[in-house]
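Dear colleague,

Following up on Tuesday's group meeting, I ran the structure prediction for the three-component complex that the binding team flagged. I've pasted the input sequences exactly as they went in, so you can double-check that nothing got truncated or mislabelled along the way. The structure tokens for the whole assembly follow below. Feel free to forward this to whoever is handling the docking comparison.

Inputs:
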Amino acid sequence: MPELPEVETVRRGLARLIVGRPVLDVKVYNPKSFQASSGDTQAFLVGARVVAARRRAKVLIIDLDSGYSLVAHLKMTGQLVFRGGEAWAAGHPTDSFVAELPDRSTRVEFRFDDDSRLFFNDQRKFGWIKLLPTIEVENIDFLKKVGPEPLSGDPKLVQVFLKNIRRRNNTVVKAAILDQTVVAGIGNIYADESLWAARTHPATRVRDLSDIKLRQILRAAIEVMTRSIESGGSTMKNYIRADGTKGDYLEKFAKVFRREGRACPRCGSEIVKIRVAGRGTHICPRCQKLPAGI
DNA sequence: CACTTGACCTGTCCGC
DNA sequence: TGCGGACAGGTCAAGT
């Protein structure tokens, strides 16, 4: 799925495209993809105006002037794609590659006052959108336990990150940085890219890494994700921006992810794909070595 | 507690 | 060409 940079890119698209619009109605194609208490949809969504598009970790929060919010997690294959209306037509890119909507992956469709639409497409149906009172958003289990925002600029970030990751001393570092309670937003792409940048083997135990090295890994994650947001995120297969266009982080900047068989940009060795923490993992075997003697 | 594994789904790709 | 298995950007519920 989309990881932090992709979700942030979608958030920015939504801020431009749907903030200010009143919702006219909602069409639910897959009930599990849209969760709302009975009556709430008619009372607090239909007729309500979108007032903000926020993000926490990989979760999108769309606030309405009814005191309710739409909360969305795209998981692996979710997309939020906007179609129609003047704002869209004005900045409408020509390389939008979702032909016609709704299609067979469409799970939910929101219609706005000017007949423009926001489609929630999700091939694998892992993603969800919930409608709930804005003040209860922070009580969602996932948001209660999620770690600090890496791009917040919070001066306490490093300290909190170190405290959190030391709880995972016994596991491999890739599993630790993928753990959303340690730090928010890192997924499989940026885990691999960050560990390559910090010259660390993903299967290194956290306990074998110094605080200095762990800070280096966090720094790398921040740099890599910041850069990705600047290029509109990574597009592999399913992720696209809210306006339907692809991000080009992967082709422009990725050093190891999905690049097995090609040369490491740092040392020229062949990048290999291995399995770590149950996930496909890309490394340069020369730049990223396991500590000796363990 | 914390670690690992399978489950949730659909689709695609690869080897036989 | 068909078929089975592995795998895909995430998270959670179970096991141990």
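The first helix of chain A runs from residue 4 to 17.

Cheers,
M.
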